[in-house]
Write a structure and sequence with these properties.
Elements: H1 18-33, H2 48-58, E1 70-75, H3 78-99, H4 102-108, H5 119-122, E2 125-132, E3 134-136, E4 142-144, H6 148-165, E5 169-170, H7 179-184, E6 191-200, H8 216-219
Antiparallel strand pairs: 1-2, 2-6, 3-4, 5-6
Helix pairs in contact: 2-6
Length: about 220
């Protein structure tokens, strides 16, 4: 028998009727099946409250030892977005000129991506997600965080889901290396950039690659 939590509190969520649970799950599945990674954004403004609520939803993600090792930096300033784009494109040019390697470039080719990243300035918001590799104690010491990659990855997944349900488009952009993001945004040394997520509405002429997702029977094993 496992150890009990130090300060347990009751948890009694209402149980949905089976038909309502099935209907809700099916509706969410349909909504998420329409999700696509968007690289062509409209500059039209987006209600900030929608984005803030999506970040709040992401921050409810489970995390190792409940350490919540994430920071979400919401960037709307056009000049800061421009500086991020310039730095990201400088790194991407090096990557596409050979740093990625032939195999990785071949895998990217069907997506039609290159070193130009207009989505970083076209989208009205960028959410830059940082991992907190450790925390600072009050006395100046450091405290290790556990399962950081897993925890932040789950939070980003929940963020993308929340944005999709709210009718917004997003992209997980990971220029490599990403150290410039911490420097540009003034983040402390315990934080490491995880992803840049442009958020907004798709452009009127937005197109996406014609891709096939694996059906359920290819990703599910029932035992």
């Amino acid at each position: 028998m496992g150890r009990k939590a130090e300060h347990p509190v009751p948890y009694r969520p209402a149980r949905l009727p089976d038909d309502e649970a099935v209907a809700r799950a099916a509706a969410l599945r349909r909504r998420m099946e329409a999700r696509r990674s968007v690289r062509m954004f409209s500059p039209d403004p987006v209600p900030e409250r929608v984005v803030l609520d999506a970040i709040a939803i992401a921050s409810t993600a489970p995390s190792g030892a409940h350490q919540q090792p994430w920071t979400f930096v919401l960037v709307s300033d056009p000049q800061v977005r421009r500086r991020i784009r310039e730095a990201a494109e400088a790194e991407e040019r090096i990557s596409y000129d050979g740093r990625l390697g032939d195999a990785w470039l071949a895998a990217l080719r069907p997506l039609g991506t290159d070193a130009d990243k207009p989505h970083l300035t076209d989208a009205p918001y960028l959410i830059v997600v940082f991992q907190q590799r450790f925390a600072f104690d009050d006395d100046g010491g450091v405290r290790k965080h556990y399962y950081v990659d897993e925890s932040v990855g789950i939070a980003v997944g929940m963020l993308l889901t929340a944005l999709q349900v709210a009718g917004l488009a997003a992209l997980t952009h990971t220029p490599s290396p990403m150290r410039f993001l911490g420097e540009l945004l003034g983040r402390p040394r315990n934080e490491k950039a995880f992803a840049v997520i442009p958020v907004g509405y798709p452009a009127d002429d937005c197109v996406v690659p014609d891709l096939r997702r694996k059906p359920l029977d290819e990703v599910l094993v029932r035992i």
